[in-house]
Write a sequence for this structure.
């Protein structure tokens, strides 16, 4: 009768319950789903604190190593840390620094968390000014995805509006216009109103690639200047394939902490990255989705636990396997997601379907009907348990039954 | 029979009395009993099931010939209370399952009860008819209209006795007042009003008025994303018509006084026990959610049931319960599995006996537990077909929690979690209990010596 008290399995079980509750007779049971969301929150807290502890341990180890090659590792790890605990720590009921001692000992990460927290708070305030832009953005994304370039960042679901205020990286242009700012907040209209839990990453413009090395340095504890570390952190923390060490000047990476979709635009090409893990059933299978970027635009899976692997990738396409049904920017193609996972287990496609539904927030989940005739939520793309982990903050409490 | 006296001393033995319900083979999900309730005299016993039916049993008059057997309960009336519905606006199916039945006190020859599903409360009148009029002028004996041209004489219709017929008619339908699922109804002691509670709101109704209800509690947050708790049960005070309590999924109970304000969002009393941090787990929130709250007959105490315990609270002390009883603490280490198979969401009810000296609640494997508040004894009994011989004495059961298992003990891993006793009822003045085990209703009485 024993079951694995593993945080991840609990999360997937909980998500499955929420998903199946939508099709149960009698409608969604508010009480049960609320309780399940508490379990989700608890499991995520544990998972994130474990992750952070592990992260800290690694950083301790690597501080004794060389600087240059593991540079990106630092970045990556530093990214990974806030990417997870940040969301955990500040999005929602969880407290910053709730990860325990490890977090407390990590001043830079804490600072980054704090910045994320600020960004998120401001973002939360601006949720009130939601406007229907996301669909438009997503639609634009859908249109723009094949082109792969123009307004690349606008094609991030829900992050579209980042672009205009900061200048879109246009095809072929150096991505200088994307200026880092310490806690930049685009005007409300440009936030990601699609999803209340859209993360601070949406608010943070990405740094020009040139900032990457400094950002990378910034990401490493503890010497980085605070302002540069925020967007630079986003930028540098996630090593785009060609980032390591030298990089092309026309590259920008933006991470959407909400969806863990990392977009790297290189020379006008779009790299569509999706958060996934080795365990994530929704990725790593299936054919490349249509409408995705060109050959150099590759999907890189973000494996939080596999930073070293990623670091070694010079070739963006190394991890190659496209996220299945990889049309994250085509809202209307969400329903086809399952088509691209023919090999997935039923559980996997259910969970990924669930999470793509989930993507628009728990309110979106619960207020929607499971039939595909309804207009799909603006967010699409492959979310998986990892993303759920990062984005649980607001929607652990968000249950709109009707 | 002095109710409750020595209810759980060594002298008290519970015996099987009756078993109602379908045999296992023909059982469908619609037959699963979802609520059990005695009326105020104990003469009637009502059950509701998942199929929306209500079955009322009536106790036989005790015959002087057979003093050993006290009155048995036989079917008195059966009717379809609720039908499945479809909310076209929200594309939602509304289950016909009867969530709660509550009797009104009897004021004339007819019986009245409230039954509710997730959305609609209905007032049913159950009345007897043992005479019928015969000899109409304009209708013949079958009820067909006669041709007026053939009528040549007039006569006065007379009432003739007929076989007893019990008919149930819906007298009121209280609909469209709840957005969320109704979990409780409670008749006020003024017998004019009652309340219905769903996950986020409680409404006050007058029995005569069906198109309006008064909202007295609303805990819906402005932003649903800030929702942290829901209402799980509510009940009026047995004597004070202005007082009621409602429990929450966070393990708290609020007592409200309707005289204080129209909208009782601010409680008068707040009952909460501080959480034991050493027991914290993934499922702490789930197992602390209160599934049932009941006032004692005296009105002095309330009893709450959460997943693992039953607690008795004194209305005069808010910071902790006065008594806590472990129902099945051996499940604490199994919470993860119970979460996986959804058993952790089971909502167990709890009941007082007539004198408030013994409390009873259900468990798994068709076990149910009784706790004597005075002697601090407790007993575990089982509702099973094997023990279903007339007047068979129920043997106390025991669950062994690891280590050496004794002969008649059952180990935790052998428990059947599909056999759960969620609904029980205790006769208001006698030691007669009704225990619903899935689709069967067991009636037990204490042994008459």
């Amino acid at each position: 009768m024993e079951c694995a008290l593993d945080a991840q399995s609990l999360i997937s079980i909980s998500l499955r319950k929420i998903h199946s509750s939508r099709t149960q007779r009698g409608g969604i049971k508010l009480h049960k789903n609320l309780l399940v969301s508490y379990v989700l929150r608890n499991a995520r807290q544990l998972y994130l604190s474990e992750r952070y502890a592990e992260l800290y341990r690694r950083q301790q180890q690597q501080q004794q190593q060389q600087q240059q090659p593991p540079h990106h590792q630092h970045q990556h790890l530093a990214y990974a840390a806030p990417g997870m605990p940040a969301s955990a720590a500040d999005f929602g009921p969880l407290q910053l620094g709730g990860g325990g001692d490890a977090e407390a000992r990590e001043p830079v990460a804490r600072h980054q968390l704090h910045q994320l927290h600020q960004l998120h708070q401001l973002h939360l305030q601006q949720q009130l000014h939601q406007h229907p832009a996301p669909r438009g953005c997503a639609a634009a994304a859908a249109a723009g995805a094949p082109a792969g370039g123009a307004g690349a960042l606008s094609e991030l679901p829900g992050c579209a509006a980042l672009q205009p205020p900061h200048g879109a990286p246009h095809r072929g242009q150096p991505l200088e216009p994307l200026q880092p700012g310490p806690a930049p907040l685009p005007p409300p209209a440009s936030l990601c109103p699609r999803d209340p839990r859209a993360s601070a990453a949406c608010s943070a413009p990405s740094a020009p690639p040139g900032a990457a090395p400094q950002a990378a340095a910034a990401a490493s504890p503890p010497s980085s200047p605070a302002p540069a570390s925020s967007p630079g952190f986003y930028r540098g923390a996630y090593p785009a394939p060609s980032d390591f060490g030298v990089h092309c000047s026309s590259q920008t990476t933006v991470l959407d902490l909400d969806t863990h979709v990392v977009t790297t635009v290189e020379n006008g090409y779009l790299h569509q990255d999706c958060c996934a893990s080795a365990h994530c059933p929704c990725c790593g299978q299936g054919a490349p989705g249509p409408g995705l970027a060109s050959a150099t635009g590759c999907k890189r899976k973000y494996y939080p636990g596999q930073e070293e692997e990623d670091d070694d990738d010079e070739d963006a396409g190394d991890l190659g396997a496209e996220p299945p049904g990889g049309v994250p920017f085509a809202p209307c193609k969400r329903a086809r997601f399952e088509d691209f996972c023919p090999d997935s287990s039923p559980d996997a496609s259910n969970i990924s379907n669930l999470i793509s539904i989930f993507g628009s927030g728990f309110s979106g989940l619960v207020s929607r009907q499971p039939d595909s005739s309804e207009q799909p939520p603006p967010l699409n793309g492959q979310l998986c348990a990892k993303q759920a982990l990062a984005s649980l903050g607001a929607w652990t409490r968000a249950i709109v039954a009707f | 029979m002095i109710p409750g006296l020595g209810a759980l001393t060594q002298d008290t033995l519970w015996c099987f009395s009756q078993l109602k319900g379908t045999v296992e083979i023909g059982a469908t999900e619609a037959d699963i009993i979802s609520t059990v309730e005695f009326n105020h005299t104990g003469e009637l016993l009502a059950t509701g099931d998942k199929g929306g039916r209500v079955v009322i049993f009536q106790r036989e008059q005790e015959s002087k010939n057979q003093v050993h057997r006290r009155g048995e309960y036989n079917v008195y009336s059966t009717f379809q209370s609720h039908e499945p519905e479809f909310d076209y606006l929200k594309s939602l199916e509304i289950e016909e399952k009867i969530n709660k039945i509550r009797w009104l006190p009897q004021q004339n020859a007819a019986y009245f009860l409230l039954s509710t599903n997730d959305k609609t409360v209905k007032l049913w009148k159950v009345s007897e008819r043992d005479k019928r009029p015969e000899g109409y002028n304009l209708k013949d004996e079958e009820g067909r209209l006669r041709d007026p041209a053939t009528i040549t004489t007039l006569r006065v219709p007379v009432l003739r006795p007929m076989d007893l017929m019990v008919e149930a008619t819906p007298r009121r339908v209280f609909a469209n007042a709840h957005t969320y699922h109704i979990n409780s109804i409670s008749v006020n002691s003024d017998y004019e009003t009652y309340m219905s509670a769903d996950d986020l709101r409680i409404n006050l109704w007058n029995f005569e008025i069906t198109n309006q209800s008064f909202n007295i509690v609303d805990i819906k947050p402005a932003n649903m994303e800030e929702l942290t708790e829901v209402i799980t049960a509510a009940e009026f005070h047995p004597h004070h018509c202005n007082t009621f309590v409602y429990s929450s999924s966070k393990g708290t109970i609020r007592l409200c006084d309707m005289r204080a304000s129209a909208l009782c969002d601010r409680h008068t009393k707040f009952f909460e026990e501080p959480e034991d941090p050493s027991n914290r787990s993934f499922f702490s929130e789930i197992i602390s959610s209160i599934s049932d709250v009941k006032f004692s007959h005296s009105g002095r105490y309330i009893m709450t049931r959460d997943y693992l315990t039953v607690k008795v609270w004194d209305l005069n002390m808010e910071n902790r319960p006065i008594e806590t009883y472990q129902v099945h603490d051996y499940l604490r280490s199994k919470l993860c599995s119970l979460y996986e198979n959804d058993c952790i969401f089971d909502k167990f009810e709890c009941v007082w006996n007539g004198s408030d000296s013994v409390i009873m609640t259900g468990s798994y494997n068709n076990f149910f537990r009784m706790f004597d508040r005075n002697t601090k004894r407790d007993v575990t009994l089982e509702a099973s077909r094997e023990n279903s011989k007339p007047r068979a004495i129920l043997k106390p059961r025991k669950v062994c929690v690891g280590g050496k298992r004794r002969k008649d003990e059952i180990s935790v891993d052998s428990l059947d979690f599909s056999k759960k006793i969620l609904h029980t009822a205790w006769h208001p003045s006698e030691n007669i209990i009704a225990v619903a085990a899935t689709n069967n209703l067991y009636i037990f009485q204490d042994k008459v010596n």
Observations:
- Chain A touches chain B through 35 residues (CB under 8 Å).
- Residues 3 and 238 of chain A are 35 Å apart (CA to CA).
